[in-house]
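Late entry, written up from scratch paper. The run itself happened at the end of the previous shift, but nothing got recorded in the book at the time, so transcribing now.
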Amino acid sequence: MQASNWQGKSSFLASIQTAMGTVTALTDGADTGSVTVETDSGTVEVSLSRQGENVVTSGSPFLTTEGDRAYANLFAFLGEDNPVRTAVRRGENLEDVLTRPLDFENIDEQIAQRRRERESIETELEAAERARERLPPLQERVTSLESDLEDLRDTKADLEDGAEKRGELAEVRERLGDMRAERDQLRSRVEQLTSNLERVNATIEEKQDALADLDVPETDHYEARIEEAQADLEDVQSRIDVLTDVYNANSRILDEELVDLVSDVDRGLMDDTVACWVCGEEHDRSSFESRLAAIDDVVQELRAERATLRDEVEDLRSEREEHERIREREANLESEVADLQQRRDDYEAELASSRDRLSDLEDDVKDLEDRLSDLEDDVDETESRITEVESEIKYTEAELEDARSELAEAEAEAERVEELIERREEITDSITDLRTRKDRLKQDTRERFDDAMAEILPVFEPGFEHARLTAGFDLVIARDGREVPVDVLSEGEVELLGFVAAAAGHEAFGVSEHVPVILLDELGGLATEHLHHLVTYFREKSAYVVTTAYPEAGEFDGHVISPDEWSVVGDDIEQVA
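Output as recorded:
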């Protein structure tokens, strides 16, 4: 970032440190703030809030362990207050700052943990070696049990092959079971047939009693009597029809005053005299009316006679139908009795056959039961021995399974011997590495310092010939062939030595694997060309390098940020770093 003084260069770096989790500073006068960093692997967001005199952090910073934050503060975030630069500037011994990350590694605790792991592995190794020693007797036991099991199975096979009557016994049992089942079915059938026969005989007796009680009349005479009554009825009906016609015609002549049409009428004061239109004799009108009334009386008598004849015909017909139903009932009963008698005969025949078959079956069952008893006596001894052998086989199989399982466990345990020895050696090597880690890191750091000095001396051309770290981590500077203190160097030379010492620690501890960025700040003591050389030097050591510079430092090969591009919020709302 390039800008003049008081333009926010250091604040920009502080925002990165906040996102990393190493700084918790707020802008003066601000109560809250937040930093958001978006990368290809995700987004990091950290929020700050002032609580009294303290600033509280929330969110998920990039660096999560205290050791990683120590790497960053010592060897990656190289601002003016960087502990390594400060120690060089003060001419102090550098052992404390260059080996400080070891304090976070808890080497003694790691060594104790590795020792506990080694002791556990040695215990497992002893068990594995004992298991390997147990393999021969375990294998011998498995072989012995397998041989015993094979002998027992052969014995069982011989017993089963020799028990010829066992198969016959099973056959007899099966035949006996079938016969008993058939016998039981026949018994049920005999009981059923007996019950059916009793019911049929009872039904036949009932129907024969009904036939005996049935009075069946003759029905041949009914046809003649019905025909005679029907003829009388038709004769009476004919007479009724004639007289009704005579009555209706003459009554109409008189009622409708039509006498003049058929006769001469002599009209008198008391009554009219009319000549009969049939015989010609003269009669008064009342005589005609009386005669018509007599005809009507005859018609009524005939109608009464007709009703009587009708009732007689209906009675005869009903009586004939009743007698016919009785005869039909008689025929039905006779047919039913015949059917029942046939069924009875069938039942009796089947019952006799079933009883004969049942008797034969019971004799066969008795014979088979006797044969079965004899066979069971013969087979019991063999079966008892087979049962004993089977029990021995099961017991031996269980023992063999246990022995095989124990052998498999022992083999699996024994197979771990080499692996456990290798793991023990690895842990022993790890303990040795941990014990020598501090010395190796010191030596590595001093060598890295020497390498860095050899690399930058030709580029920066400082006013001293060489600088190195002693075994005690004192900084020794040679100029004009003699050792000189730090305070005789220029500001730029002192800052260059500080950066070189930090770079040595960065390389020795592999900080690039933990912290992805290097921050460079407060580089005013370096000449412009040296500033560019320094940035180039650190670009090879980290994925990202962020540095601050004044505008007069010229252009840099990278992404340049200017405060002119920033949007600044007021102090009364959340401050975004």
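The CA atoms of residues 464 and 479 lie 4 Å apart.
(Scratch paper discarded after transcription.)
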